[in-house]
Amino acid sequence: MASFSQQVKDEIIRLELSGRQHCIKAELAAIIHLAGSLHLVGREQVALSVATESAGIARRIVKLFKAAYTLEGEIQVEEVGKLGKLRRYIIKISPQPELNELLLELGLLSRENTLENDIKPQLVKERCCRAAFFRGAFLAAGSITDPQKKTYHLEMIVHNEDFSNGLIYLLNLLGIKAKIGQRKGKHLVYLKDSEAIAKFLSLINANTGVIKLEEVRVIKSLRGEVNRLVNCETANLEKTLSAAWEQVENIQKLRGSPAWFDLPENLKITAELRLEHPEASLKELGEYHQPPLSKSAVNHRLRKIRELAAKVSKRESGAGS
Asked: Which CATH superfamily is domain 4-205 in?
């Protein structure tokens, strides 16, 4: 079964390309920034390759190239990993004037042919373009843990600090609080708050992913509430049983001393009922009386019994010394 991360990516892959050229270019720009490589070919000619381990993402990248620049990309397949069980799909664009135009417009190269590491502001002026940009970023370098796990986590692996700062800035503009970290020399832009992750998934139109995340959040919340109530009930039960056991000990101490014969009849009735029902709560104990007593009345009688038992203990202690 596909991981939750793969399910989210599969949902994005199936989305129709936007009819707006600026959104198509924004999505393509993010993918190239995060999964692309530039290669010098011959004399000052540049070729481009974009690598992914997903055939579906590779097909979407090809569609984006065609839709935005009518560029034809050659897809090569490499076997990687142990025994070649994994495949890497590489989309290659050979040197051509249209490619130079693409690299310039998408903010990968400057007019002086130097590499650009930050996000070109013109690409992400509108909210729809920002959403498209993050769709591309997640497809190229994103992952999300299964919400069933103990903690929530969504991240995008970024090669340089300027680009990661740009992603953080854009997310802040969209009302999504993210953080930057590092792992093995690479920068991470990550989210750990479930609400922020849900907002991000909604932004990139991974609506099925949002629904599953919300379902798990509700279940976790209910489970936590049930556990809290059970723990509270357990603590209350332990407290009740501890108090009842102390009351039984007090009554047994009185019954073994002359003070029992001087005990008022109403206290004797309550004492006998406590011995018959040691596990009962004060409310339940009150209901066993004829006529029934209130919880506070029962508590008052048991407190008097405790005081009398304490006097007996004191006298026995004095007599022993």
From this structure: Homing endonucleases (3.10.28.10)
